[in-house]
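User: I'm preparing a small set of examples for a lab meeting where we compare how different chains pack in three dimensions. I only have the primary sequence for this one, and I'd like the structure in token form so I can line it up with the others. Please keep the answer compact; I'll paste it straight into my notes.
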Amino acid sequence: MLCHTFCHIPGIGLKTEQKLWEAGITTWDEWRDPSPVRLSAIIRTDAARIIAKSQVALTGDPAFFTGNLASTEPWRIFSHFREKTVYLDIETTGLDDGAEVTAIALYDGREIFTYVNGINLEDFVDDILRYQVIVTYNGKSFDIPFLERYFRIRLDHAQIDLRHVLARLGFKGGLKGCEKQLGMHRGTLDGVDGYFAVLLWNRYCTHNDSQALETLVAYNVEDTVNLERLMVEAYNRNISATPFSENLLLPYPEPPANPYQADYDCVARIKRSLGSWHS
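Assistant: Understood. Below is the structure token output for the 279-residue chain.
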């Protein structure tokens, strides 16, 4: 899809891009000046320059594209840079500046990697450098700035924040809300959310409860691996609205087995302690 994209060129929006496709300009190689679609001289000059840079960026600079695309459009880079993509989710002790990262999960479509505070959390800093694209849900607003502040690092990866991509497709209500709207179910972890994850961490810290920690990491992994299905769903739904759907649709991935098991009794015990908890 990336080579069919023109909306990363200043002055060319989705409607103009559609007009270019209809006029036979469906790839960068077919660009010509004068354009069959009426464009200003400045836009035509910018187009030639951006297309030349795009050809170079295809070889390994996904951030060039996400830096020029609207927040709803980074899905376009996915298939081209999929092998360098990682799905990421974090758990924390809260939302304020003094909060700590408790767990991080990464999934690259092949392997799951987990990082836990007090065990191996610092390994994340080196491991994330293996990738060029990070896929999150609300990561641009929360996960990525939180990690940058916490570790005092800069994550210059291209980002696909599915919150914005899915919202444009009509799917809202948070990560779990989008999952349910798309027919995804969590079993034992149904009803567990970010606040509950804080309670699991607190129980682990105060009672040395290994089941609470395992449940927390299982929840973190579930959040992360589900991003792949949501990414492919978003990609295919967007592709279906283009003239290129016949050749570019992706097969839906099989979710990997979660190496961690949520403990039902642990979840039920914490819910009972809250009294008013509604799953």
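A couple of notes for your slides: The first helix runs from residue 14 to 22. The longest strand covers residues 85-92.

User: Perfect, thanks.
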